[in-house]
Design a protein that fits this description.
462 residues; mainly beta; six-stranded mixed β-sheet; five-stranded antiparallel β-sheet; 2 helices
């Protein structure tokens, strides 16, 4: 009994000694099993949230910034070229889902580097985008940062659904300028519009879906509109105020602004019913740019904030008012985006001073107050423009200025600092020897509209 009792106590002592170890092991096992359960639950939850689609399609296609070689002539007449960049993001591409065909109706400008093009492709439901080799059936994963060669045109883009069950092949055709288009800007055959013939002042600009024309003839100012898609059927607007003193019509978010015969700035939503725009006074309204409505007030160029009616007198670098380029009928005031950022803007005024000299003024953007103006007239490369008479200027494709004068078409890629008259961009062949350009403007379709003193309208593009 004593021995038995002793063995029993020894066993109890052994169990007692190992009990803590057993408890620790059990705890570890429990935590391990709980961890596995939690991990399994998480994985299962994520798996339940993943949805795989079986459809495949390209829903959007556009181009990015491309390299462009421009042909021109030096001051001595020698042929030369230079390489620049061209923002092709505004070029519209049509996606024909039935034929699986993607193409641009309007050809890209000439000189584009077709071997290194940036493409932006969007697939439905984040499908897989592949690009087929030009020489074999090899497929490559598409990356938006890769440059793509269109030496073989069209290129084949393949879209796979993210569950791998569906595939669609698209032919992407990029239309470039043909060689026979490089000899000059393509102009349509002209047609005569009586309201423009012998007019002493013409201002034309795109407005909503229309072209808006302000025409001064025999001392009387009238407004006309026509659909941009038409080009021939002009409709006169009946206004409730006299606009005979209005040099320019400014457009701000589809609202029209002009100065009436009493020097009151008025606004209109339809071009016919005009009401006073607050207390803003001005003898002339020139245009709107970088948040400011520019006008002539007490003989000084003034910038108005149309939301508050407050004004700032514009400063010119110690230049007398006689040299301001505000004496054209009318001057050109244009808002431009900078070459480096579409969110940064600048303003350009092109016109003649009191002595009849063509001048170009430029200034950058400031959200709080207008900046001082810089004159670009004295730049050596600006003489192509400033030596001309009856100059009119328009913004073209956001980052170019195009001017038309009595003798030539000129282009500026740097806000008007320098101007070129490229060999492949020319005025149309006028019908008579006495015909001269009096207005040029680009519409929303990037077509140039040119009106002459003979009342002929030419439309074209490059």
């Amino acid at each position: 009994m004593l021995i038995l009792t002793s063995n029993i106590w020894e066993k109890r002592n052994i169990i007692s000694n190992f009990a803590p170890c057993i408890m620790k092991t059990m705890k570890r096992l429990i935590f391990f099993l709980l961890g596995i359960y939690a991990l399994t639950s998480c994985l299962k939850g994520n798996e339940d949230n993943v949805t795989y689609y079986d459809d495949s399609a390209i829903t959007a296609f556009s181009l990015g910034t491309l390299k462009r070689t421009v042909h021109t002539k030096s001051s001595t007449g020698a042929d030369s070229t230079y390489v620049t960049t061209y923002d092709a993001s505004a070029v519209k591409f049509t996606i024909d889902q039935g034929k699986r065909l993607i193409y641009n109706t309007d050809s890209l400008v000439n000189g584009i580097d077709s071997l290194h093009m940036i493409c932006n492709v969007t697939a439905i439901n984040s499908g897989i985008i592949l690009l087929k080799s030009m020489v074999s059936d090899t497929l490559f994963y598409y990356k938006s940062t890769d440059s793509i060669s269109f030496k073989s045109n069209p290129r084949t883009f393949i879209i796979m659904s993210n569950n791998g069950l569906s595939r669609n092949d698209y032919q992407v055709k990029v239309n470039f300028k043909h060689e026979d288009e490089l000899s000059g800007t393509k102009w349509d055959a002209p047609y005569e519009v009586g309201i423009f013939k012998d007019a002493s002042g013409i201002q034309l600009q795109p407005w909503k879906e229309y072209m808006l024309a302000k025409v001064v003839k025999d001392g009387v100012t009238n407004l006309y509109t026509l659909p941009q898609s038409d080009g021939k059927t002009w409709t006169q607007l009946t206004t409730n105020i006299t606009l005979d003193n209005a040099t320019n019509i400014a457009i701000v978010n589809d609202m029209l602004y002009a100065s009436d015969s009493n020097g009151q700035i008025c606004s209109s939503a339809d071009g016919q019913t005009w009401t006073a725009a607050g207390t803003m006074k001005a003898s002339q309204v020139y245009g709107y740019s970088t948040g400011w409505l520019y006008a002539l007030c007490d003989g000084k160029l003034t910038a108005y904030d149309i939301l508050t009616g407050t004004s700032n007198e514009e400063s010119f670098y110690e230049q007398e008012a006689e040299r301001l380029p505000l004496f054209s009928t009318p001057p050109s005031l244009i808002e431009m985006t900078t070459l480096t950022s579409s969110s940064i803007k600048s303003t350009v005024i092109v016109g003649t001073d009191k002595n009849g000299t063509t001048r170009v003024m430029y200034k950058g953007e400031n959200k709080y107050e207008p900046q001082k103006w810089m004159e670009l007239t004295n730049e050596e490369k600006g003489k192509i423009l400033t030596s001309e008479k009856n100059v009119r200027v328009t913004k073209y494709k956001d980052k170019q200025l195009v001017s038309a004068s009595d003798s030539r078409l000129a282009i500026s890629d740097d806000y008007g600092r320098s101007w070129l008259s490229p060999w492949n961009k020319k005025l149309p062949t006028f019908k008579t020897a006495n015909e001269k350009a009096r207005e040029i403007v680009a519409d929303k379709y990037n077509r140039l509209w040119l009106i002459t003193n003979e009342g002929n309208v030419y439309r074209g593009r490059y």
